[in-house]
Amino acid sequence: MSQSSGKPNAIIFGGLNTCSRSLAAFLVPESGEALVANLRIVDKYSVHPPTTYLGSEFPKILEKPNVEYQQANLTLPATVSHVFDPPEGQAPYTYVFDLTGEVRRDRPEMIHIQQTVTISRLIGLEAARRKVAAYVRLQLPFFETSEKGSHDEKENLKPLGTQGVWWQENLRVLAAIEGLNLAIVRIGIVYGPYVEYGAVASIMTVAAVYGHLKRQLKALWPPGKNSMNTVHVEDVAGGLWACAKWIAKTGRKEADILAGEDILSNDKSKVQGKDVDFLPDPSKKIVAPLFNLVDDANTTQLSMGNTVTGLFGTTFGFHDFITTTIAKFKLTESMIEEINEDHVGGWTSMITSSKPPVTNSPLSAYLDESDLSKSVIALNNGKIKNIVGYTLTKPEFNQQQLKEVVDKWKAEHTWPNNEE
């Protein structure tokens, strides 16, 4: 703990391109009292000059006297150890937030292993060696659930592709580290101010184009439940903080009793023979506290489509039976290019005709195969409410939330202003 304030010192690892900017702003807000005494953020990106999108508010957080950013190569054990060392005269870091991991599905398997498993393991080992009070791991939704009902933490969710396999395996690696005060937070589809990453940002961008063109946005998959559970990025930050306080107070042994779940292994064929010598035995039972974090909206493809298109003055529909049947079996390159043709050109037109023109935007109207493939995310959020005591601040997915996102992008001139 900080010797002066009684507040913990914290490190956020990774996630500068996903959720760590929002977490940093939650822990050390631009105005108001900070929740931590000192905050260090560590990632591979540069912030001066930026080599990833930062949004207009995060640089103001970096100017705070108790916030420090370090650009580092976290694949090196010596580097990981070094970034845990506090500045002279400062108490050790006792809260660790692990938001590392490869988020691009199209990367080679060894990149997924290195960027997701190797890095996280090095951080976890060092955190355990230093006996940190809380180690909270963020699990992004690189998995899918059954369409029937919502699913709790005891159920074995299907990893999506190679990326999902190694994000899942990483949980076993962390959970197996002796003495690590670990809590895992598994989230739905994240959205919110300055979140240019993920399905909601993509759908908003495409819907804006169809609203501009005064045409209906059509989904590739036929109507059905098609759950796409969402979570606001401010609740991601709040949930991570709540779990950090909970595990710090509870300790790993008691936390496993109260909230532990079997962290199941992937199919052996997917992880063996990959030149990774530190994976736990697939037959070994490994338990760790695990919490789902989604809002209360029970968002589906249909409700998301209606909410987003309504914001931009258009409607949501579905492609014909033949198109959806073909897509079900194989999304060809020509189909993907045909789908993208209109809205990519429309987005280009919108940003160039904007008043003022948008010269640099992190947003794209291009949808790749992973964007267009069907996946179902239906999670039950009761456990984090009941055990950790977390209360959602943004329980609904609605147009008011989305309008705030657009307004903030417009204010920083990364979203087009095409109003007459």
TrEMBL record:
InterPro entries for the chain: Lipid_A_modif_metabolic_enz, NAD(P)-bd_dom_sf
Gene3D superfamilies: NAD(P)-binding Rossmann-like Domain
Top-level division of the source organism's lineage: Eukaryota
UniProt cross-references to PANTHER family, sorted A to Z: BIFUNCTIONAL POLYMYXIN RESISTANCE PROTEIN ARNA (PTHR43245), LD23561P (PTHR43245:SF11)
Protein name: NAD(P)-binding protein
